[in-house]
DNA sequence: GAGTTTGAAACT
DNA sequence: CAGTTTCAAACTC
């Protein structure tokens, strides 16, 4: 039924709406440019976008919407309402969803190196350095495919999962770690590993450095925010920064950021995340975690091929923003900023 | 590329 | 809260 309608009622609240994405209006309704995920081919620029047909991109089914970003050109969605033009609808809908589930837009994968929200106990058992917020409910995939949100996020299953026959390579529900991440790396590890395995194993050092910086700022905050969906490659290509370049858009970071600083952050106790988004100068640092992070550090990724895959949510939640080339780290954006109950 | 499978999200 | 339906991604052919 009408999602839009329902949402509208709340719309007035949207007045606070932050800057969503910068945008103009991109009708990408053209079904022609169907571009699935980054599959194998165009990992370069088209990392991933949604392909919604019925949800109008106003439900969590839509990855863009779920991630808190507007749909942009590469999307192949139809009847998309997840655009700046329909800002109020989007915000209203989000509110509605959040009212139902406050954590709906929170990062699904929570890095719990040290601070585990609630599943603290198992955190010690699970090897993975992160955990899925709600846990999966897989029955047939054995948590070995991307159907599994835990697996997809590169994290192990935890007791919160209700999966059956869990074989999650990143860590099973029962705590038995399959151990060898090596296993992973054969497969798509290439993709994810960059975020996961690699991180855990090789780049520990770098990670430390980085994390110190980032984490220090946000101890508990999921980094998922660091979505670097920048399509900067245009810099030289001169591709018109179609509004869609959400990201650095100056005012908008790509997420529907409502920067109400005083908001009660559910996950983030500290309300002081200013949007000092640390933007990594792309000129200098193309990709931090990417693997090729910095040659100088020497800790580079082990992957022979420097294929940069853009994991949907490598380690931080499904981020539509793939690390295309450079990354913009906005650590400050509240994960589910958008609409916090203003009361 | 079309069709199938899968599990989250949404709905009842 | 549990069962069912809807949905879009992941996957297979």
TrEMBL record:
Domain of life: Eukaryota
Protein name from the UniProt record: Protein tesmin/TSO1-like CXC 2 isoform X2
Source species: Prunus yedoensis var. nudiflora
Disordered: annotated segments: 281-343
UniProt domain CRC: residue ranges: 46-171
Record bears the keyword tRNA processing: no
InterPro entries, alphabetized: CRC, Tesmin/TSO1-like_CXC, TSO1-like
Gene Ontology annotations for the cellular component aspect, listed alphabetically: nucleus
Keyword terms of this UniProt record: Nucleus
Family: Belongs to the lin-54 family.
PANTHER family: PROTEIN TESMIN/TSO1-LIKE CXC 2 (PTHR46159), PROTEIN TESMIN_TSO1-LIKE CXC 3-RELATED (PTHR46159:SF12)
Subcellular location: Nucleus
Biased composition (Polar residues): 293-306, 332-343
GO molecular function: DNA-binding transcription factor activity
